[in-house]
Amino acid sequence: MGILYRSSVNRKPNDSMRLIIITFMGVFLGFLIGISFPTLSLTKLGIPSGLIPKIDEMYNTDIKAGSSTQTSQNFPSTTTGSGDKNNSHNRNGTSEIWVPSNPRGAERLAPGIVAAESDFYLHRLWGNPHEDLNTKPNYLVTFTVGYKQKENIDKAVKKFSENFTILLFHYDGRTTEWDEFEWSKRAIHVSARKQSKWWYAKRFLHPDIVAPYDYIFMWDEDLGVENFDAEEYIKLVRKHGLEISQPGLEPTRGLTWQMTKKRDGLEVHKDTAERPGWCTEPNLPPCAAFVEIMAPVFSREAWRCVWYMIQNDLIHGWGLDFAVRKCVEPAHEKIGVVDSQWIVHQGLPSLGSQGETQNGKAPWQGVRERCRKEWTMFQSRLANAEKAYFKSLGIDPSNSPKQ
Ligand SMILES: *[C@@H]1O[C@H](CO)[C@@H](O)[C@H](O)[C@H]1NC(C)=O
Ligand SMILES: *[C@@H]1O[C@H](CO)[C@@H](O)[C@H](O)[C@H]1NC(C)=O
Ligand SMILES: *[C@@H]1O[C@H](CO)[C@@H](O)[C@H](O)[C@H]1NC(C)=O
């Protein structure tokens, strides 16, 4: 600290002696405060006062090195090791805190200190912690991106107001380049090479981490957003009670499914007619209770369920669109497509080109085959799991209501 102050004074040699004295007084005062505060609180924690200067030194070394808080994580074990007097009550369990209603693994903590959920809010490294956050965005948007799509992503991000936390998953390892965009500095960047959207989602969007967000947008990188506004979209989703939704897709683009095509003159729609034979029942996918995986929007509650449904090897996510209906009830009312805020699926090759040539097949072919394989796997796992569950209850699955 002292070194920092002095060097900044040296840069302005004309400054008077007074400044130096004030600086020193400031440093000294800061030192006193720094010393006295931990003394108060640490002695309350039962840490011997002889240890405090040592602890202070330990933390300071840490700050100067600019390293992480590794040493502070060792802190509790240091105290239990040396501060533990021969208290029989500690061993006996009578005064040990034991709260079965705490999250798993945290049962020994007093419930008042348990923070079961977190967020992506960025904090500063100084000042009062409770004054760190000016705003707490209510919504989260994630894009799985490669740097080649930067122009498209830049346009897309600008459709999301400051009420959104922006989270980019980078599959090509390029992250710092994005800082050419102003918004990139407030975005969270997660980089892992050649992974897919649902791989990231499973690993970085745990429901307890994204808990503060009312809605979570999990979008691909190849979406055209000219006719889309995120705040308006959320208004409609709330109004129509959609727990899982997507914007309508511009219909001239040879789309696979009728359900996700934008319809003119509507705010939202929740069902459709398909080609003959495509739907076994009108309330089931792909005629209702269905959105695609390219641009889904989940409510907090729906995502909490869907996250658990995503198996760790389901990385492309094919098949998920047919299954998410199991997470909301009644699905044909709570899943829908927003028509008046719509997007264009540009269908740019992205992750497909990240595959590898195998057995003489082009990379994109290998990726596509993998997608199909996942779909089959996921479908049979789901069916088998339900069969096993009904069997364990002694119910004949063929008699159970179709879900
Ligand atoms: C700690 O407790 C054990 C028995 O509970 C006793 O035998 C031992 O002497 C104690 N040690 C100290 C340092 O008080
Ligand atoms: C340990 O706990 C039991 C009850 O669980 C109690 O009867 C006993 O007195 C306790 N022993 C000590 C040393 O606190
Ligand atoms: C952000 O959210 C607040 C509160 O819901 C709202 O008043 C405001 O209009 C939103 N900002 C934008 C840009 O829509």
UniProtKB/TrEMBL annotation:
The chain crosses the membrane at residues 20-40. Keywords: Membrane, Transmembrane, Transmembrane helix. Residues 66-101 are annotated as: Disordered. Residues 66-95 have a biased composition (Polar residues). Pfam families: DUF707. The keyword ATP-binding does not apply. The keyword Membrane applies. InterPro entries: DUF707 (IPR007877). This is Storage protein. It comes from Cucumis sativus. The lineage of its organism: Eukaryota, Viridiplantae, Streptophyta, Embryophyta, Tracheophyta.
